[in-house]
């Protein structure tokens, strides 16, 4: 079939082009009688019952406008018959209602997973492969010198140094603003609480608390919703997808940076259950992308450009990996953990040179943050604040006995179960938001409602639970309120958890002395903060889930520690080490929600500064991950699945060796000739959504004429050529004023073909594609197995892989979505291969 089609000339935009080379499935043709009816014998009547689905029933009910007939019952004589018929009527009515409820639950269960069993077609891939066209070869010949290579190598390290410095400056600024403004806010609320507890005007502090929360939170939500929606959440799922090779417009822009940094300050000051550590990874990535491009795009099309030598997806991806690691390092003071986080959780392509550069940027970010925050605190030479969140050095060494390992394992199982519950509830809430809360003003209002509810619940717990203590908090700057405590030096222990930022709450749970927080207070805090964390994550605000997860785990871990101490009253040394149970609980909860092990272990060890406690932390993280994975995926993976991102795993899905490249490729295939009319190019870009088009040429020296593959040209290249009007009338010389620098100036390109104005006369002009297409694209034969195609595609970071037949004629194209639609899923310990659908939304 391929040879027969090869004789025909492909026509662009029609059904007679190269797409006819694709193998079409065989089908059976059924015939029916002409009259459409089959005569049946009159006496032997057969009835065929056709099953009707629930959806067809509902559609019929909606279209049926007939008046509803009243239900009538035949009344028989006798009291027994009346009772019997009444019972039957009630039973039938209850059965009908039960079936309706069961049908709705079943339908919800069938429809909800569609958000995770699909890929969205709008997501495109990044171009990691170098386009070795004529323009690239000319520029490479100009820079064939050791000096140029050395300067380029030094330039990369300088940019990584600047990424670390920029991330440190941002982290210190956010820390200073949040801590100072939050302290003023909670001091105001505390004064009103203490005063009104005596005067009987407690409605005043709660109204002030709610008003501050709702104003600040709605301001941050409006900034994120209307300025750049990609700044919502922690940003780590987006960064993870970007480093995996998915192109996300608007993710690394100046608008996203403003919305992210200002939004996270508003979220924390608004009293939401979130932290600023997750957004720091996104903010560091934006700084890295801006420094890598050497250009900052402001509003109204204005920009500031300094250099352009690294404006390609391959270089920017490496810088963004360093920016994400720097953000984590500056947040937790963990340079090694930040590097491992970028390697384990994010990047899909790695090498040794990149590891050193990323670690260098992380170290600079950690040291810079330490110096700046220490300077703000008044002692710059001590360098006592290496990160935004430090668990601080525990007063006593974190020692553990082997007899405590079973307790730690039990806590890991609990952490995995609670983490899985957190993910499941947040998934249900995310689906509900996408269905019903998808308008911008509703998103802003929802954020305000959550902030009001947070203040109301915190106030209710402070007033309702009179947990008084005379112990001094571990933080001497902590805000404490007496409220209803009458004794000398007494204060409400819950005030150290609610009249502070989430980071201060976490430190209080880790370091406050034994007996400071009672069991009732801890149980109430865990229940409330857990559901508030579920509700908060996914709002249209800039927020992170690291700190809420750690605080929840630290609270119930401290509760477990109190239980162990009460079970062993003679072990007085355990009262000193109650904080270690809070640390183990925090690790279990975080591992159960995020499901990362190596990087989290290193981050927690670096935050505590005690390497001897690394073994139990590693054990509980692994067990909590296994327990959580047995039920559902991690939180970030769930977000990626709901967004429909075409993520490529590290390995090819198992049991796919029998699939060939011809089974998974996209077809029909649309192609161009080396010289093509502007009309054909414009109409093809307008009608089709493909981002790569093979360039073919007929070999007139053979009989019959064969088609030869000449190269591959990308959509953004054609858009730039049309925008620059690089075409001419037939027979004339085409303009040659486009250089490789012009493509870098338009990077990243989000131009649409409808934005390009071309006259009717220019539609008949010709464009010579030879200087611009890649003459050496990667190709595979149709008999290649899926594992080999997957390894080649992912290992080289490809965007397009052309499939050819045995005569080197292109018959299809393998893209990221063709490989990502085969996903490995596991539930309740059973591994299965899922085939995802590709949808528009």
From TrEMBL:
Segments of skewed composition (Basic and acidic residues): 1-11, 29-42, 54-67
Location of region: Disordered: 1-70
Domain CBS: 665-730, 773-833
Pfam families: CBS (PF00571), Voltage_CLC (PF00654)
Keywords in alphabetical order: CBS domain, Chloride, Ion transport, Membrane, Repeat, Transmembrane, Transmembrane helix, Transport
Predominant location: membrane
Cellular location(s): Membrane
GO terms under cellular component: lysosomal membrane
Gene Ontology molecular function: chloride channel activity
Superkingdom of the organism of origin: Eukaryota
UniProt topology in membrane: Multi-pass membrane protein
Transmembrane domains' residue ranges: 157-178, 207-227, 319-342, 354-373, 405-427, 447-465, 520-539, 545-569, 581-605, 611-628
Family: Belongs to the chloride channel (TC 2.A.49) family.
Name this protein carries in UniProt: Chloride channel protein
Organism: Pinctada imbricata (Atlantic pearl-oyster)
